[in-house]
Amino acid sequence: MNLEKITDKIKKLGFTAYEAKAYIALLHNNPVTRYELSKNSGVPRSAIYDIIRKLEYLGAVNATSSKPEKYVPLPPEQLFNLLERRFKEDIEEARESLQNFDTELEPGHLWNISGYKNMLHKAREMIGRARHSIYISLWHREAERLTDDINMAIDRGVRTVIFAFTPIMIKGAELYSYELSESELEKVWNHKIILVRDQKELIMGEAEYKNPRKTVWTRNKAIVDIATNHIILDITLYGIRKHIDVGETVSAMQKGGFQYLDHLITNHYSDKNNTLLNS
Asked: Is the pTM of this model over 0.85?
């Protein structure tokens, strides 16, 4: 990975470009004076004093007792631990500050999630909150990125049903996969994802990272039920094509209303048949 990419990743942690460059330069060569650090990092001499001061405040560098002062970096792993603790503390402080602002989400509203990474973040968050069931339709690439989260849900006892056209390797799930070549499918279809949590919450849409699209997140009951039924239909067709009994999975995915509907339909046509036979 080149220096520019490393700098960009460190900037995402809250560092400025100069701060990131100075820290990376210190990792390469330390201990050094401010003058040497300016020369090694490309940070202007006029800015290096403030940059060092900010890095010291962040805990990313320390000064030695030598004259003139020289600086050494905090090792990356220790820095990440420090930032993680500080970030958690900041979140808790912000949460306490905003706890009186109780804004209820409109249950029927559709929220757009922009970008592939944000879609994965939301999917992981939903899987992490699952208590009873997860129903997923997805491709191999997205399954790989969500495998750890799905495995943790399975370990918690969450019933996990997965449908896929492409190969999926997740043990403990009720898996229905045609195991078709992902590269072949990509010639005619875009990657898609449907994820239903506890039959209460849904994320659905295209899962493209090269040309990121918007995915939809909602708690709208009707739309959640429609998405669930879409997965049920795919699994039902899978069972018919593969001559596999999927009845137990499909029955578990259906709510009581569907079972009662089956009862009404069966009785209705049974009565009609009896009428025809007796006429």
From this structure: no
